[in-house]
Amino acid sequence: MIVLAYSGGLDTSVAIEWMKQATGKEVIAVAVDVGQQGETPEILRERGLACGAKEVIVIDAKEEFAKEYCMPAIKANALYEKKYPLVSALSRPLIVKHLVAIAKQYGADTVAHGCTGKGNDQVRFEVSITSLAPELKCIAPVRDLAMTREKEIDFAIKNNLPIDVTHKNPYSIDQNVWGKAVETGYLEDLANAPKEDLYTYTKSPIAEGANVPDIATITFEKGEPVAIDGVKLSPLQIIEQMNERAGAKGIGRIDMVEDRLVGIKSREVYESPAGIALITAHDALENVTVERELARFKNQVDTRWTELAYDGQWNSQLKHSLDAFIEDTQRAVNGDITISMAGGLATVIARKSDTSLYDFNLATYDEGDSFDQSFAKGFIEIYGLSSKVATSRDQRAGLK
Ligand code: ARG
């Protein structure tokens, strides 16, 4: 038996019958809803069954995705190559978790997905699968069973599969509650600007009203956002509200060329209004509450954590240990950050924290500060000593 990651689209719908004929095995189609805003569970069920699935299972995993995947990404300030908030990368391990559970429940020996052989997602699916259940086999019909678009359409018509084969979206889209990723024909030419019609989470930063600031105060507890403007909300509600509010101000549009794990540079356009707004706020609160040496080191850990998530190593030993480190750094990341959202930017304008390390009496340039400036001279003399000695040597020896 095969458990298939099912989206309801052409590829995975055709894949059901295709795999049945190629392997002689039954197929269970599993749609994990992480906020794709796709079709209703009823339609997915109907179509999957009509395409030959033995069973179709639809799981609402939005709250779980927000809590277990997006919240850790906020704590890690996760922006791959300093820009991409890991939208697709975060969803794959969660989808796999459910696929594997269902495979075990039904005694399936294979898990399948609809990825091509060129992207990161095939790696994320398969590495996540084998790291949870080493005994399971993986197949990707588009990649392994030579399922091309033309052949798919012929096959769908010949087998009477109830799918609209004429409809071809000009964009390749992946989306969830954390944002949207878009790749497409014309974007593959780096000289072409994205057209306005690919954006659905955000208004243009220059749209009417987008320059009128929306001020939001986000409360964090142990690095996790727990309330907006004093109202306690669930992780999913927080993300949904920030998507609305930051999206209305054009925040979170990202047009970048990124380094895929498989060695290809690729152009992708993203939208993640909540992702950018919440990471901006979280980062600002860490500036106030995390001690300097810890903050410097955490920066490196954040980068590595983000790379591991991007590279499909969500369940790896290293990621697991870095999670523990990051969790420990968040002990005192408590307080309120106020951001002003307008014209495509989330700007931090106020900070309040009971666990702040900011000491007004140390920092002030006014009279009566508690910092003894006379200590500074000796500190600098010793701090700069090794460099001073080395430069003198270079001058003496004619090395400089
Ligand atoms: N490049 C992104 C990643 O590797 C998104 C992949 C899916 N993108 C898409 N437009 N279908 O995480």
Structural topology:
Blueprint: E1 2-5, H1 10-23, E2 27-33, H2 41-50, E3 55-60, H3 62-75, H4 87-106, E4 110-112, H5 121-132, E5 137-139, H6 141-144, H7 149-158, E6 171-176, E7 179-184, E8 214-221, E9 224-228, E10 231-232, H8 235-248, E11 253-259, E12 265-271, H9 273-289, H10 292-310, H11 317-329, E13 335-342, E14 345-352, H12 360-363, H13 374-383, H14 385-396
Helix pairs in contact: 1-7, 3-9, 4-5, 8-9, 10-11
The structure holds arginine (ARG).
Q: What keywords describe this structure?
A:
3 domains; 5-stranded antiparallel beta sheet; alpha/beta; 400 residues; Argininosuccinate synthetase, chain A, domain 2; Rossmann fold
Describe the structure.
Helices cover 43% and strands 20% of the residues. The chain is an alpha/beta fold and 400 residues long. It has 3 domains: 2-172, Rossmann fold, CATH 3.40.50.620; 177-352, Alpha-Beta Complex (Argininosuccinate synthetase, chain A, domain 2); 370-397, no CATH class. It has a 5-stranded parallel β-sheet, with helices on both faces. It has a 5-stranded antiparallel β-sheet with strand order 10-9-8-13-14. A 4-stranded antiparallel β-sheet has the order 6-7-12-11. It is elongated, with a radius of gyration of 25 Å. It starts with a strand and ends with a helix. Residues 88-89, 120-121, 172-174, 181-183, 268 line the site of arginine.
